[in-house]
Design a protein that fits this description.
The protein is of the alpha+beta class. It has a domain of 229 residues. The chain is built from 22 helices and 13 strands. The longest helix has 147 residues. The protein is elongated. The relative contact order is 0.09.
């Protein structure tokens, strides 16, 4: 009997019987153990994906802050920028698949033709399904850069139809099912979301005991695949964005269909494939190894991030730099808050109505009247009734925060391996394209390991497809897909197919170079072809005297030429032409038909000149394409430089506007102070003038009073004098009368 399943511990597989119920209990325990082991990574991966697209909706305990700065966060999403840059650098187009012999020495023409046929088949499939393949490769790379694990697998798809002999069997009332014949066959790639993959406990991929792939089937699909009885017993529910979250977080984001969760488990120990659905107490189906691959698993080693030898489990790149990303977001939030604070605001005395009217109604050369000027002046005027926000301190703190943020961004770029050149930026406006290319090559060397891992993952997918083609495809299908009937080596096709169908004998190398998926290095390609043509020309010139002296040495020299050419990619077609030339040279010819060695050398020299001309033409085309790409890159760099300059000019203009506003405010303050002082002086002068007039009037009044008093006294004195004079005259007259009387 099996142990207690609640404990989640397995002591021996023999404790579980071979019946579907016990096998379900075994795989239920394995899956639950894997879920617990990967739960923290699943939560982290979901959070990283939402951080990548800056999704702040309330979901699963993630960041729910709004994008505004009023109590929320202002995020500078450098993670999206860096990840998108790396993704675009590593994958820009469909790869070029090269198939060659492992051993290029010797005249193994059958192996060469087999390699060419397999290469044609893989390239044809890539061309016919380019959009699907591109989506799978991009999705796998995106999963590697975000949660840390990219996964895809191969699938052999065969479609059958009723054989023509079935009509005769039916007419004879035979109850057996009509025989089937193959209608088509294909090897397809299937992408699997990183959270839909599970595996057994292991320290490395090589000792992985099992792999599980989760898929979702509707009731109709489950009925067609497993039968009505099983389909009726499965549990169906709506699919959510986060498959490991209980319940539906956001009904608007959930699927409209109810589907059953099916796990397809590839057990390396038993070499079987098992289908289970948690909640259904039996194994749904079990089949023996359907693909018979060398390494059993239908998926190549995962495109995994930062694995360790302790436990085979990914560690996302974001996890290694999350503190720096968070610090940059904190600094950027503070910068945004202080940026909102950089504005001309202040407070003023509510009783001073003229202050508010000065800003609302005031225009050029317009004065705002003040009712009680004396009280307004007593409070200190404008300066005493208004106070501004201290912008100098705010701007100083803002500049310091920007400096700290830029330092953190530089540290982040060093930690993650990113550089300014990898974002298409120039170090300065005087930097040339040559310097930029040198910096780009140096910077890209830090990503070379990741680029090689991605190319190796794509190569392993192609190797699995090639293995399925060689083991399971019909020979007629291989011949049809290879399309070798017009090739010079058409007569070697049957032997080559036989070699491909013999896995123990075929020795081929399948390779996808990382540079074939990234931007094409036309300069390097031009140099390689130019160097080969120059070497070929030197070889022919040196071999011409030997050919003229002894024409029998021509096959030997052509074999040497073929040996040198075998080391170059895409040389299979030319090798076939050289094989025909070698066979022709080896055939006995009549003396009268024997060509002149000099003429043969001249023809060979002519062919060399033609090849040289073609190579020169191709070099010119490559040079033109390279120049065009360089110009496009320069245009992009110029646009980004202009954007940077425009941003700096905007910041400069804002700073100048702020300074100018400060000068205007200071000037307005000085003008108001001057006007206030002038008004005070004028009021004092007016008051002093009024007081002077009053004093003058008083003095004049006093003077008039004095004059009046002095005038009365004078008149009295005059009258007294007149009276005295009149008395004196009268007395004189009396004396005169007396004297005259005496005389008489």
């Amino acid at each position: 009997m099996p142990p207690n399943d609640a404990a989640g511990v397995i002591s021996s597989r023999s404790d579980y019987e071979k019946n579907p119920t016990d096998q379900y209990k075994y795989w239920q325990t394995e899956l639950n153990s894997a879920f617990k082991r990967l739960r923290s990574w699943h939560k982290q991966g979901t959070k990283i994906e939402r951080l990548y697209v800056d999704d702040r909706v309330v979901m699963g305990g993630l960041d729910t802050s709004d994008s505004g700065t009023s109590g929320g966060k202002f995020k500078l999403n450098l993670f999206h920028s860096n990840t998108k840059t790396i993704q675009d650098m590593l994958f820009g187009k469909l790869p070029r698949i090269d198939v060659s012999r492992l051993d290029t020495t010797g005249n193994d023409d059958v192996a060469r033709v087999a390699a060419e046929m397999l290469e044609r088949i893989l390239r044809l499939d890539l061309e016919n399904n380019g959009e699907a393949h591109s989506e799978i490769f991009k999705a796998g790379l995106s999963d590697r850069l975000l949660p840390g694990l990219g996964c895809a697998r191969v699938r052999y798809d065969v479609k059958t139809k009723a054989a023509k002999t079935a009509l005769r069997a039916v007419s004879e009332d035979v109850s057996d099912e009509p025989p089937q014949e193959m209608a088509s066959e294909a090897c397809l790639f299937d992408y699997y979301y990183w959270a839909d993959v599970a595996w057994g406990w292991c320290r490395g991929y090589s000792d992985m005991p099992w792999q599980g792939f989760r898929s979702y089937l509707t009731k109709d699909e489950a009925k067609e695949r497993f039968g009505k009885e099983i389909a009726d017993g499965l549990t169906y529910k709506r699919r959510d964005v986060n498959p490991d979250k209980e319940g539906i977080n956001d009904p608007d984001m959930a699927s409209a269909w109810q589907k059953a969760e099916i796990w397809e488990i590839w057990d390396k120990f038993s070499k079987k494939v098992i289908w289970v659905s948690l909640g259904y107490d039996k194994v749904l189906d079990t089949r023996k190894d359907p693909l018979q691959l060398k390494n059993f698993f239908p998926a190549p080693p995962f495109l995994i991030a930062n694995p360790t030898n302790a436990l085979y489990k990914p560690t996302p790149d974001y996890h290694l730099a999350q503190d720096l990303y968070n610090e940059i977001d904190v600094l950027q939030t503070r910068v945004a808050i202080l940026t909102e604070a950089v504005k001309v605001v202040g407070v003023y005395d509510a009783s001073a109505e003229g202050i508010q009217r000065m800003f609302n109604e005031g225009v050029d050369n317009t004065l705002i009247p003040v009712d009680n000027w004396a009280l307004f002046a007593e409070k200190g005027g404008i300066q005493g009734q208004i106070d501004w926000v201290p912008l100098a301190e705010v701007v100083g703190a803002l500049d310091k925060l920007r400096e700290l943020r830029d330092d953190s961004i530089g540290l982040l770029q060093q930690t993650t391996g990113m550089a300014d050149i990898m974002r298409g930026e120039l170090g300065n406006q005087y930097e040339g394209v040559g310097q930029t290319e040198i910096k780009a090559k140096f910077a890209s060397s830090r990503l070379q390991a990741l680029s090689e891992d991605f190319a190796k993952w794509v190569t392993n997918l192609q190797k699995l497809k090639a293995e399925i083609i060689c083991k399971h495809f019909d020979p007629m299908t291989i011949a049809k897909m290879a399309n070798m009937q017009f090739s010079p080596d058409a007569d070697k096709v049957p032997e080559a197919i036989t070699l491909l169908k013999s896995p123990n004998m075929v020795r081929l190398r399948i390779e996808v170079k990382s540079e074939t998926m990234a931007q094409e290095d036309y300069a390097r390609l031009q140099q390689e072809r130019g160097a080969y043509l120059n070497g070929l020309s030197t070889f022919i010139q040196s071999a011409s005297p030997l050919i003229q002296q002894d024409p029998r040495s021509t096959p030997f020299l052509l074999e040497m030429l073929k040996w040198g050419m075998a080391g170059f990619k895409g040389s299979s077609d030319i090798e076939g032409v050289l094989d025909q030339a070698i066979e022709t040279m080896k055939q006995p010819q009549q003396q009268e038909q024997k060509p002149d060695p000099a003429e043969q050398a001249a023809q060979l020299q002519l062919k060399i000149e033609e090849m040289r001309a073609q190579g020169k033409q191709q070099a010119e085309q490559l040079k033109a394409q390279t120049t065009m790409q360089i110009r496009q890159q320069d245009m992009q760099m110029d646009v980004q430089t202009r954007q940077q300059e425009h941003r700096m000019e905007m910041e400069k203009a804002q700073f100048e506007a702020y300074n100018e506003m400060q000068v205007i405010a200071a000037k307005m303050d000085a003008d108001v102070r001057t006007e206030l002082l002038t008004s005070q002086i004028n009021a004092q002068q007016q008051q002093m003038g009024q007081e002077g007039e009053i004093l003058k009037a008083i003095e004049l009044a006093k003077l008039d009073i004095v004059k009046m008093r002095e005038g009365k006294q004078f008149d009295m004195q005059i009258k007294a004098m007149e009276k005295s004079f009149d008395a004196a005259e009268n007395q004189k007259d009396r004396q005169s009368s007396d004297n005259s009387g005496d005389d008489t």
